[in-house]
Each structure stands twice: as C-alpha cells, then as structure tokens.
Design goal:
Rossmann fold; 3 domains; four-stranded parallel β-sheet
C-alpha cells in the first residue's frame, strides 16, 4: 500500500515505521499531508466481524505490516481487549438508524470507545504503532480540548504507552480529571504573547513532536495515518445498504469529514456504492475557517486540487479572533484537513455552511428529545447544518439525508 504526500507527491519509504508527516511540511506554502492510496482492485470484505478494525482490516495501511492475516487479527484482538478493560467497551460497528422525528438517518457514535468517534482515528494509529514495532517507551502527544484527548488517554493506557496531552485553559475539569486517572501527562497551554496565530495547544504539541514524540493526533497534516482508522465509519455507512442523497458532517479540524468523504469515495471506486452522497459540512459562526476556504475555492473553481494544495495560505489560515461556542469540540482555529474536504464538496456537489449559537442549541434539544441519544452540541452540530440546508433548499426535504452524532 502506497503512502505519499498529497501536496508534493513525496513517497514515504516502504518500510518506514513512522510515515506520519511529509518532511517538506512547513518549508513552503504547499499543503503537505501524507495519504495512503488504496489499490482500486481491492475486494470489498464479505465477512461481518463486529469489530470494524477486523472487518475492514485489508483497507488499513497497518495491515501491510503484519506477518500474515492471523498475526494482524491476534494483535488487534488483544489490543481491543485491553481497550475494553480500560474503558468498559471495545470497538464495534455503531448503530445507524432512521429517526422519523428528524426525517434523517443517524449514525450514533456516542457509544463508541471514550464516548465519541475520535477513538477510531487513534485506534488506527495504535494498531500501526504495534505493527511497525515503534518502541513502547516513546512518548505519544496530542493537542485536544476534550473528546480526542479522552480517546487518546484510553487507547494509550491500553497500549501501555506514555501520553502527553496539550489542552486549552478552558478545558473541562471532568475531562482533565479523567485524563489524570488514565495516567496522561497534562500541559495547559495559554496563548503566549510571542505565539504566531493559531491554537497554542497545536504549537506546544508540534514542539513536543519536534523533540521526538509520536504525533498521536486527529490532524492529518501532523499524522496522515489518523485518517485511516476514521474511514471505518464511512465503510460502515457503505455497508448499511441505505442509498443516501446527502450527508452532513460537523467540522472543526476536518479529520472526520475528510475520513468519511474519502471512505465513501473508496466505496464507490470498489463497487460497494453506486454513487457518493453529497457531502456537506457545518461549522459554528464563531469559528468557520473551513467555510471561508470553501467560499474561496468556489471563486477559483477552475483550479485543480493540486493547485489549491500548492497555495495553502490562499485558502486556510487561523480564524481571528478565536470565537466561543456551545459546540466546543469544533472550535479549531484552523481546519487542518481542509483540502481533502474541499475536494469532496466540489466532487459531490456539497457545500459548507456556518450556523449560529441558537441554531446549535435548538438542534441539540431536538436531537436529544427525538432520539433519546445523550449527545452534546458538538456531536449534534450536523443536525443544525441539515436543518439550515433544508431551509435554503440546498438539501431537498425529500432527500435521503444522514447526520453523525459524534459524542
């Protein structure tokens, strides 16, 4: 399986244990993100293992590092059992149900490991570290305000690996307490006067990575393989046998939207789906850098994906001043995985929209009352986007639409 930079084409050495970030990243204005390229002749799995990392194992970059199929299954099974011992649950295919009161399908990730979809990204990385033989003593690092940090804490503890977590000053006390219980090393990151624009947690995280830590993150530019595990969510959607017209995904850093869009595209290439649904993304008005990038991409629609990636600062830069929102989990200063998301919107006929705080609150109240799912405003933000898209007829009321409740 080939791993290469989507921005410059640099190929990762075939047996590299750490093909996480393009070595040219940060040297120019190119959007350097490593991606794994799936063989278009690969066969869609016909088995139905409840663990998505086993069901879709032949689509994971880490599978190529296994001695054989039995070795991969054994390693993933043992790691998943360790996750369950820490968190009370391992990985399994999550529910996808019709919600009549919403007029939409709902993929419910709130019961996933650590309570959100973030564990998918990080379990994929943990499997890679095991298969590639990265030493257990090497520090893992992540920047996060909540869900990703909790998932990282659980999976690092299960893997027996040390973890540093870089969190904002406003991080929830209950999240911090749980991270301490999991043995994570916490670093609170205020905005320092000499910092460049952008999230100070990301700045401190990248300093740790430069000093030798493994980027155990949910941002593709910092570790391209984080998208690998996230694609399992899309593969589950493809296997649900529901022909969707539209999918609305909430976006902060953009890794979720990137992973889902790429996974659905692969399902079409491999013949599992007849076509891709229109992928739409939603952000809070308080922080909407991806919406801004989408608007600029529409103005230059004649440019190719490679051209857009060659001029990152024309499309993506930190949102200033940083806003506040009830959807705290998608308040990233930048949409780090913006380029692949914009590609998907253009390819599928989707759009990017920003919604206000009242809309986010109302959507959350509706989500909880209509489904009984204990989802927070971040996790139900996709529903706020769907409501707004239907009001403008960007999504027809009759369209078969889906949202993700992510935790």
């Amino acid at each position: 399986m080939v791993i290469a930079c989507a921005g410059c084409g640099w190929p990762a050495p075939p047996r590299s244990a750490t093909p996480f970030r393009c070595p040219r990243a940060g040297t120019d204005d190119v959007d350097h993100v490593l991606v794994r390229r799936l063989d278009p002749s690969a066969a869609w799995p016909d088995e139905r293992d409840p663990n998505p990392f086993l069901r879709y194992r032949r689509f994971l970059a880490s599978y190529d590092r296994a001695e054989d199929d039995a070795h991969f299954v054994d390693v993933v099974t043992r790691l998943d059992e360790a996750v369950a011992a820490v968190d009370g649950r391992g990985f399994t295919v999550t529910p996808f149900r019709w919600a009549d009161a919403l007029g939409a399908w709902v993929k419910d990730e709130t019961g996933n490991v650590a309570g959100s979809h973030k564990g998918r990204h990080l379990m994929g990385l943990a499997i890679w570290l095991e298969m590639a033989g990265v030493e257990k003593s090497r520090q893992l690092a992540i920047a996060s305000c909540g869900n990703a940090a909790l998932a990282a804490g659980v999976i690092a503890r299960a893997s027996g690996r040390p973890l540093s977590v870089f969190v904002p000053t406003w991080a929830d006390d209950s999240v911090l307490a749980r991270l301490r219980d999991l043995g994570a090393e916490l670093h609170v990151c205020p905005r320092e006067p000499g910092d460049p624009p952008g999230d100070p947690c990301i700045h401190r995280f990248r300093e740790a990575v430069a000093a030798g830590a493994v980027p155990f993150s949910c941002q593709g530019p910092d570790n391209g393989l984080t998208i690998d595990g996230g694609r399992t969510l899309a593969y589950e959607l493809a296997d649900a046998e529901v022909s969707l017209d539209a999918l609305v995904v909430q976006a902060g850093g953009g890794a979720l939207a990137s992973a889902v869009a790429q996974g659905l595209h692969e399902a079409v290439v491999l013949g599992r789906l007849p076509r891709e649904p229109a992928v739409h993304v939603v952000q809070p008005e308080a922080n909407a850098p991806l919406v801004r990038a989408w608007q600029r991409a529409r103005e230059t629609a004649e440019e190719t994906p490679r051209t857009r990636r060659a001029h990152r600062r024309d499309f993506m830069w930190p949102w200033q001043p940083a806003g506040t929102s009830v959807a705290t989990g998608i308040l990233d200063d930048e949409a780090y995985d913006w380029a692949s998301v914009v590609d998907a919107l253009l390819r599928t006929g989707g759009t990017a929209i920003a919604v206000g705080e009242d809309d986010l609150v109302r959507a959350n109240e509706l989500a909880r009352s209509a489904t009984g799912i204990d989802v927070d405003p971040t996790g139900s933000a996709g529903l706020a986007g769907l409501v707004a898209l239907r009001e403008t007829h960007a999504v027809s009321p009759d369209a078969r639409a889906a949202v993700l409740f992510t935790g």
